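Standup notes
- DV: blocked on the single-chain target, sequence here:
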Amino acid sequence: MIRRPSSFGQCAGPVSRRSFLEAGALGLAGFGLSDLLRLRALASEASRPMPRRSVIFVWLPGGPPHMETYDMKPQAPSEYRGDFHPIRTNVPGMEICELFPLQAKIADKFNIIRSLHHEFADHGGAHKRFMTGRIPATPTEFVNDAPAVTSIVTKMLEARHRGALPPVVAGVDGGRGHIDTFCLGPAYLGSAQTPFMVVGDPSAPDFKVQNLGLTADMAVRLDDRTHLLKGMDRLRRDLDQSGLVEAMDRFSQRAVTMLTSASVREAFDLSLEPTAVRDRYGWSAYGQRGLLARRLVEAGCPFVTMVWENPFPSKPMPKPCTYNWDSHAVNCHMFDDARWRFPVYDQAVSALIQDLYDRGLDKEVLLVVTGEFGRTPRLEQTKGSQTGVAQPGRDHWPQAGSLIVSGGGMRTGQIIGATNSKGEYPTERPITPNDIWATVYQHLGIDYNDSLPDYTGRPMPILPFGAPIPELLGSAS
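- DV (later): unblocked, structure below
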C-alpha cells in the first residue's frame, strides 16, 4: 500500500532541499539563487536556440486501474471485469469507461496506450523505474539511485532556457513536497537540478505560491545587493576579458528577475483566469492544477509535472474512498472510489486537452497522463480498514497498464497496443516507460542517446534503452 501524507515523506534518504526560489530569497546576502544559476550555466552545454516545445506530465500515484479506465474487458469473467461498462467515443472502435463521458467526446484529440508494462510491483520500485527510466538498484523505497527525468530535463535545457520561469515545475498536495516523495531526486546530477515545487491545493480559496515575491525589507536588501553586484561587476569587467564575468552578470540578473518578475507571479496566479475557464476545469485539485499547468507552459516553462492524488485535499474524504489511485480493497471500495474520483478526473483531463487545442498549443505541448502501473485483472475482496466490511479492490500490477497522450503535433485518435482477454499482459506493441521518455525527450529536442557524468565522472546514458513510439511521431491530420 502507498503511504499516507503523514508518513510518506519519512523514507530514508537525503534531507529535503530548499525550494528553487526559496534558496534565492534566503540567500540574498550570501550563496543564493544566482550562485546556483551560475554553477548550472558554467557546467552546461554551449548555448543554442531552443524550440518552443513543452511537456505536461500528469502523474496519478498509486496506479489507476486499467480495466476500469481505458482497457475495459466486458466479455471477461465477472471476477475480472468489474462493475462499469464501456461507452463509445467519437473515434470508431475506441471505447472507454462510462464514467468518462467528456473524454468520449474528444477522443479524437488523444491516444490510448494499452500495453505499458515493467517489472516492479512496489510503489517505490515502480516510481523509480518510471521516473528515472532505469532499472532501480532496489525494488522498494523512494530515493533514486539515478536522476529523475525532471533533473535530466533541467540539466539538458538550462543552457537553452531563457525565460524567467524555472525549467521544471511540479505541483503536489500539502505535505507531499519532499523531493523523494515521488522519486524526483537528482542523484548524481546534484540538488540544483530539481524542480520548483508548488505545494498545496490550488482550488482552495487561500491558495498561494510561496517565495514568488519579496517583502519590503527583503526588497531593500535586494536593492543594496544589486547595486553592490553592479559595482563589483564593473570593476571585474575591467580586469577580466574571458567572458566569465559577463556570464555571472547575466545569471545574477536572471535570479533577480525570478524573484521580482510580475510575469512569473502572473503565470502562477489562477485568479487572472476567467471564472468560466476555472469552472470548465472544475474546482478540484485536479482541475486547477491542470489549468495551472497550461498557464505555465504558455508562459514558457518547458516541463510541468502535476500530481493528481486526492481530488479534494482541502475537504473531508468519503469513507469508502482512498487518498490516491491505490485501490486495494483494504484501502477503499474501488467502485465507490471510482464514482467519486473518475468524474473529477474526466472533467479535468478533458478540459486540459480541449484547452490546449483551443489555444493552439497542441503542436507545442505534449501531454502525458499516467500512473506507475495498472491493477490486478482479478478482483480481490477484503475487509476495508475504513468501512469494516468486505469490499472489492485490485492490487498492484506492473505487467499491464494504460495511459493517454495528447498534443505534441502527433497523430491522435489511436489505440496503441493491446492486452489479452483478461487484461493480464500485452499481446501487441509492448511499451516500457523508457519508450514514453524517449518520445518526451525527442519532443523537447533532447538527444536521449546523450550521456551525463555520474559521481565519478563516468558518462551515464540519459536512457539506457528505449525508443520513441513511432505511432506518435507523425503529424496530426
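- Follow-up: The radius of gyration is 23 Å.
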